[in-house]
C-alpha cells in the first residue's frame, strides 16, 4: 500500500488523470492519484467531449486552442485512436445576443481562432433541411471537433502507471484488481498528513 508520494493529485476526472500522465511523462517518480469514487465519476463521465474554442474569456480560448492541438495530434503522440473528428461547429444565438456574439468572435479571432459570424439567411441556404429561427445568427468555427470521451479517459489511466505510481480506490471495486493499480484509500494518505 502506498505510504508516501512526491505528488498527490485529488480527483480522477480528465484534469487529474491528465496531470498524472504528464507528470509521469516528465519523469516525476511517485504520482498518486486519489479518487473518491471511480474515474470519470464527475463531469468528465458526462461530457460530450466537444473541442471548441468558442469561449468568451481570453484564458479559456487559449486553453481550448492548446487543447485542440493536443487532441489533434493525440493518435500521433500516443498511438491511440480516440476517434478525433473535426466537422466544425455552429454556435447559435439570437439577434438580441448579436453584440455579445460579435464580441466573442472578435476576441477569438484576435487569438488566432478561425471563426466568423453567419446570418440567418446564410444558415438557411447552407442547410435547407435545418429549421433556424427567423432571428437566428451563429458563429461558425470550422476547426471545432469532438472525440470519443470513453476512449480517451481510460487511456490516461492505462498510460499513467507504466512508470509512476498511480493509485485509486477504484481498484477496491474489483474492476482493475491485480493489474497495474495499487489499492489505496484516502484515509491512508490523510493519516500521513498529505
Ligand atoms: C453534461 C455535460 C456535458 C459537457 N460537455 C462538454 C463538452 O462537450 N466539451 C467540454 O470541453 N467540456 C464539457 N463539459 C465540461 C467538462 O466535462 C468538465 O469541464 C471536465 O470534465 C472537468 O474535469 P475535472 O477533471 O476538472 O472534473 P471532474 O470530471 O468533475 O472530476 C473531479 C473528480 O474528483 C473527484 N473528487 C471530488 N472530491 C474528491 C475528494 N475529496 N477526494 C477524492 N476525489 C474527489 C470526483 O469524484 C471526480 O471524479 C461537460 C460537462 C457536463 C456536465
State the separation between the terminal residues, measured CA to CA.
Answer: 15 Å
Number of helices: 7
Radius of gyration: 21 Å
Kindly state the mean pLDDT as a whole number?
A: 78
CATH topology of the largest domain: D-Amino Acid Oxidase, Chain A, domain 2
| Name of the CATH class of the largest domain | Alpha Beta
Assign the structural class, choosing from mainly alpha, mainly beta, alpha/beta, alpha+beta, or little secondary structure: alpha+beta
Ligand list:
flavin-adenine dinucleotide
- How many β strands by DSSP? 7
Main sheet summary: 3 strands, antiparallel
CATH architecture of the largest domain: 2-Layer Sandwich
* N-to-C series of helices and strands: EHEEHHEHEHEEHH
Strand order of the largest sheet: 4-6-5
Low-confidence stretches: 160-194
Instruction: Give the number of domains.
Output: 2
The CATH superfamily name of the largest domain is: D-Amino Acid Oxidase, subunit A, domain 2
Helix fraction, binned, reads 25-40%
What is the overall shape?
elongated
Residues in β-strands, percent: 5-15%
Keywords, please?
three-stranded antiparallel beta sheet, 2 domains, 36% helix, 194 residues, D-Amino Acid Oxidase, Chain A, domain 2, two-stranded parallel sheet, alpha+beta, FAD/NAD(P)-binding domain
